[in-house]
Design a protein that fits this description.
By secondary structure, the chain is of the alpha+beta class. Helices cover about 30% and strands about 25% of the residues. It has a single domain, classed as ATP-grasp fold, B domain (D-amino Acid Aminotransferase, Chain A, domain 1, 2-Layer Sandwich). The protein is built from eight helices and 16 strands. The strands form four sheets. Strands 8, 9, 12, 13, 14, 15 and 16 form a seven-stranded antiparallel sheet that branches. Strands 1-2-3-7-6 form a five-stranded antiparallel sheet. A two-stranded antiparallel sheet has the order 4-5. A hairpin with a 3-residue loop joins strand 2 and strand 3. Helix 1 packs parallel to helix 7. The longest helix is centred in the middle third of the chain and has 24 residues. The protein is globular.
């Protein structure tokens, strides 16, 4: 089935989203979007579901989202391997990656090229609320929402555990709190900026703007710094359509986005701020989000998205059996 056979219009039935899988493998770990299992030889199996998180909560499930994330992340890892090694050792199924078992660093590394966002940790929300020293950076008066910054900045956060929210940090606090050693943190920052520059370059060739992104770094079994989890996907990044950016921003409108930002805005419009169960956003928002994720995949990779068969679980079990995981 090709993308042309996917109907993402309102009211058209779509596959039931893939939200979980239970396999006969040890050390099952469940994150917001991924489920992972221990494999031999210092490897782990990472399964990417269709769950969508916002406000540090699972708020929706979007068909084909997991496949987009898994395959797009693998593409980006391959296209940035000259900058830093990554955890990928194989992609046996559209929703699964076999990766090296790494020890994650205890900070999320967010790189921002524009002043934007609606959540409490975003630059624009804090700036609009009157702050001018944000994440340790002094910002001038007169900045406009969605404006490009003079240079990208790194704004780290802690990793919220067990439903807690991420805590903003300055770059200095990462070292002061002994979260990451000074030398390693300097390498992380330099690598993050290099990855972001590559991301901006490739996005521009796809007529997109990479506004900001989040990176996860870890140490492999030999203690070497690698990039893990995912990168430059619509889950971890804001991608805007370049052709309409200037006109929309000048008119006071939000940029046309190919990420999950419209989900965040729809939740806020419904009065949700991350506390309690999230409201049902309906099939139209779900279908539009699927379309945005697929659009981003195709623009960035210059490949046609080929949806995997649903339900996902039997297909994946068969694929994992073929490579000896099950």
């Amino acid at each position: 089935m090709s993308i042309s056979s996917l109907d993402t219009s309102s009211g058209i039935a779509s596959p039931a989203p893939f939200t979980d899988i239970v396999l006969d493998l040890p050390d099952r770990r469940v994150g917001k979007v991924r489920v992972s299992y221990e494999l031999p030889d210092d490897e782990r199996l990472f399964v990417t579901t269709d769950r969508l998180s916002a406000f540090d909560r699972i708020v929706a499930a979007i068909p084909y989202k997991g496949q987009v994330l898994n395959e797009l992340a693998a593409w980006w890892f391959a296209n940035t391997a000259d900058i830093i090694a990554n955890h990928v050792r194989g992609v046996p199924d559209p929703n699964a990656t076999i990766g090296v078992s790494a020890r994650p660093l205890p900070v999320e590394v967010v790189v921002r090229g524009h002043i934007t966002g609606v959540t409490s940790t975003s630059l624009w929300k804090r700036y609009a609320d009157g702050e001018r020293t944000i994440y340790g950076y002094e910002l001038p008066d007169g900045l406009r929402q969605h404006q490009r910054l003079d240079a990208p900045i790194i704004t780290p956060t802690t990793k919220g555990e067990d439903g807690t929210h991420d805590e903003p940090l300055t770059c200095a606090q990462v070292v002061e709190r002994d979260l990451v050693g000074a030398e390693l943190w300097n390498r992380v920052q330099a690598t993050a900026l290099a990855l972001f520059a590559r991301g901006q370059e490739i996005a521009a060739s796809a007529k997109l703007i990479l506004a900001d992104t989040k990176y996860e770094f870890g140490l492999d079994p030999d203690g070497q710094l690698i990039i893990i989890d995912e990168m430059h996907t619509p889950d971890s990044s804001r991608f805007w359509v370049a052709a309409t950016y200037d006109e929309r921003v000048a008119a006071g409108q939000d940029p046309e986005s190919l990420d999950k930002e419209p989900i965040r805005r729809a939740l806020i419009a419904a009065g949700y701020n991350g506390d309690g169960p999230s409201p049902d956003l309906g099939p139209e928002v779900t279908a539009q989000t699927t379309a945005r994720y697929i659009n981003a995949f195709e623009r960035l990779t210059c490949r046609t998205f080929v949806p995997g068969a649903y339900p996902v679980e039997p297909r994946m079990i068969e694929a994992l059996g073929k490579v000896g995981v099950l």
